[in-house]
Write a structure and sequence with these properties.
The structure is a homodimer of 183-residue chains. Chain A has 183 residues and is of the alpha+beta class. Chain A is 50% helix and 14% strand. Chain A has two domains: 46 residues, no CATH class; 129 residues, Arc Repressor Mutant, subunit A, CATH 1.10.10. Chain A binds a DNA duplex (23 and 23 nucleotides) through helix 4 and strand 5.
Chain lengths: 183, 183
DNA sequence: TATTGTTATACTCTATAACTATA
DNA sequence: TATAGTTATAGAGTATAACAATA
């Protein structure tokens, strides 16, 4: 996992820089102190994309660790979740829902099938397609995963109040919806 | 660019599911319609991490395209920005600031050096280290990039009001700061 | 002996293309 | 001829380890 931020920021305030032109940046995130020296992030702290990426990395980088199984990534969990919610889903449908290529969907299914969590079943109406179903072991695993993931997500946002949570959710939805065409 | 979301969601409302247990999900993002059929995202829409990731993908997937140069990624832009803001930065320092491995920093610098945008200079105090500096071409490129990136970021958040922007920024900061130890 | 930066190498993730079996 | 799914292959991007030069 990598990129675009320091491992342990230890942010410290620095001298103010044209703050009137930087509505979003606050004194404490324009600078970073490492090696006993202070460095400047330039205009990065003014960019919402920069913070979105960093918040997403916080989520991602703690996910597998908190789940307690390095192999279970957000993508693999998402696949199991969607299959559980849509029994008999076809692989092309899973790929479309998660925005994956066909081979990527195949691999995600292979992963869970190897753990006896789901099974591919022939579909009478179309011999080419397979319906994907949770096994009893998959039901159990998904149930436990859902709990752990929900806890992980609550921990991620533990520092936010209910109104802050709603505001964050609303803002993210607007960004996602406005970018729908480009995705 | 991939993963964990449909390319063109075309979200539609579906029947309500235990909404009292799903404070964050709203009717319009629990379902997705593809192939003339409605599928369920399961508990994914209840997870802030899911939306963070999707918003980040919207940002990332339009970045290089809007900049007009597929080779200029957020990471490479960030590297140039940080070097511009900290003239004479050493490569290990760049790596630490951006959370990169040494080889990754070397490659980012190689990229911009090949475009005559920056130069490695020997440091008198330490013959092992190199200070990284923008060239005149690098100054020009960075100036233009900063403008384009700022426009890109404004487009990303164009659907948000000023108070919404501040709320989003504040919430992301809290998530990033609370996860600081794990990053 | 430790550190800066480069090179070698390998691993993961992803995609496109080619293939098979059905339709 | 087209589609569902698999396999083959290749390209990014990343990391660790080994190396050269310097401290």
């Amino acid at each position: 996992m990598a990129g675009v931020l320091a491992k342990s920021p230890k942010l410290r305030e620095g001298k103010q820089l044209k703050m009137e032109e930087r509505p979003l940046a606050t004194r404490s995130d324009t600078k970073i102190t490492l090696f006993d020296r202070t460095f400047d992030y330039g205009q990065l702290p003014e960019l919402m994309g920069f913070h979105l990426r960093r918040a997403s990395i916080v989520d991602f980088s703690t996910f597998s660790e908190e789940i307690g199984d390095r192999a279970i990534t957000p993508l693999r969990y998402s696949a199991l979740e969607v299959i559980g919610a849509n029994p008999g889903l076809r692989q092309t449908q899973l790929a479309a829902i998660l925005g994956l290529s066909k081979p990527a969907a195949t691999l995600a299914i292979d992963f869970w099938e190897a753990r006896d969590c789901l099974a591919r079943r022939r579909i009478p109406e179309d011999g080419r397609a397979r319906g994907i179903h949770l096994t009893p072991e998959g039901q159990r695993t998904l149930g436990e995963l859902r709990r752990q993931v929900a806890l992980h997500d609550q921990a991620l946002t533990a520092s936010l109040s209910e109104p802050e949570l709603r505001a964050l959710h609303s803002a993210l939805r607007k960004i996602i919806e406005s970018g729908g065409g480009a995705m």
